[in-house]
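haha ok so turns out i had the wrong file open the whole time. this is the CORRECT one, sorry everyone. sequence first:
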Amino acid sequence: MFILKKEKQGRIMDFVGAIKAGFKNYANFRGVAGQSEYWYWYLFTVLAGIVLYAFDQFTNLNFLQTLFSAATLVPSTAVQVRRLRDAGQSWKWLLIQFGLSAALIVGIVGLIVRAVALIPDMNLVSDNTDPSLLQSQLTVLAGDQAFVTFALVLLLSLVLTLVYLIILLVLLVKPSKTFEQGNKYLAPSTPEN
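then structure:
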């Protein structure tokens, strides 16, 4: 098992220690989490999610991976908040996810609702196999201002989500900051005697 280099804020955490810390601090949004704690927890959730997804597919249960994701949502958010604090960043960066998620949902639901409303205009019941039929259906969709608006909302929210995820990744990989380096989320260190 490999260990990340020594962290400034605390002890080095191994893979098992990070899993224990993640569940022990299930809803602890205070304090800090070092790089090893965060990335090992993230690795655990990804690997467990893959294994449970494969198990779900093999057994046709189709709920274990979803149940695991729901069960680890709070500790994953908590360790993310603590990791941002360790890097000297505000946890408020995570609030952007809610706005982007809302925009994605509005775009998807709006497209579906408008497409369903336009079904009578698209001549879907025709037995005509003429390729121009698809072109005329796309013309109906493209001619509907509400459909185009929802498509643009969806596209813009996807682009902004990608940009946000890149920014968040950069913030999460930043090294730990001490109080002396400007981390306002930590108390000043006391000299050891």
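The two ends are 34 Å apart (CA to CA).
again sry for the mixup
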